[in-house]
């Protein structure tokens, strides 16, 4: 079964390393292909589901690596490939009663709808179910991600900045408890943006400075580090983030 507690989910490490530090998605793909082959040969359905899920996540991080322009040009076949992997993982995890894994793959399915299809209405049932399952059974990383994207929902859709701050602060706290330095800068950045929207400027600036410091300390890729630094500069110049529904 997918591990819970103070560890990353099975299969996560090579993908997160590629996404945040190395940019080497080919290495992540190779590691996951080997994991999938090993799991299938051993009849390890939990291991198979984990490999399928993180193959989907590798596709997802590749897709967002190109920013908004890259997402706009993403072919439907790429979206369907990611969705199919999450669906396979979710089906397996439901079949074997892996509720931590179910939470993880529900969240992944929500990502397809929110990020790739721009459909918050379709995404939120998956995110809400993922959050409930993750809080009851899941690992710290999946819980942090579910809180994070429900927080984004409040920023973008309900425009409830207080609820966004609450969820994004919880996401950051869970990542701090997990203790993986690669994951902290993005959480601080999002919290800082929400605080600015909520009119809590000094707290927002402090969170953005924390994001910049954490990105440098973790050796994050330029796309992450520069994004945090850019938002700090903009906020110090008086800009408040504006989030509009796609």
UniProtKB/TrEMBL annotation:
Keyword presence, Repeat: yes
MF term (GO), any: G-protein alpha-subunit binding
GO cellular component: cell cortex
Protein's cellular compartments: Cytoplasm
Official protein name in the record: Tetratricopeptide repeat-containing protein
InterPro entries linked: GPSM, TPR-like_helical_dom_sf
Source organism, top-level taxon: Bacteria
Transmembrane segments: none
Keywords assigned: Cytoplasm, Repeat
């Amino acid at each position: 079964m997918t591990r819970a507690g103070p560890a990353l989910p099975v299969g996560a490490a090579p993908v997160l390393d590629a996404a945040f530090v190395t940019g080497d998605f080919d290495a992540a793909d190779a590691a996951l292909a080997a994991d999938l082959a090993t799991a299938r040969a051993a009849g390890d359905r939990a291991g198979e589901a984990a490999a399928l899920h993180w193959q989907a996540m590798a596709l997802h991080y590749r897709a967002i690596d190109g920013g908004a322009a890259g997402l706009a040009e993403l072919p439907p076949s790429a979206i369907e490939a990611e969705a199919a992997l999450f669906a396979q993982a979710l089906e397996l995890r439901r079949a074997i009663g892996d509720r931590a894994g179910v939470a993880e793959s529900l969240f992944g399915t929500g990502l397809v709808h929110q990020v790739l299809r721009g459909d918050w209405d379709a995404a939120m049932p998956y995110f809400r179910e993922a959050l409930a399952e993750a809080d009851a059974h899941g690992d710290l990383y999946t819980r942090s991600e579910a809180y994070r994207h429900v927080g984004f929902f409040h920023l973008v859709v309900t425009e409830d900045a207080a609820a966004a701050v609450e969820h994004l602060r919880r996401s950051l706290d869970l990542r701090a408890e997990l203790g993986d330095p690669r994951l902290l800068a993005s959480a601080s950045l999002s919290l800082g943006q929400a605080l600015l929207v909520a009119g809590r400027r000094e707290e927002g600036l402090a969170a953005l400075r924390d994001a910049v410091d954490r990105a440098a300390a973790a050796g994050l890729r330029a796309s992450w580090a520069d994004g945090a630094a850019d938002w700090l500069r903009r906020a110090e110049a008086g800009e408040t983030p504006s989030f509009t529904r796609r």
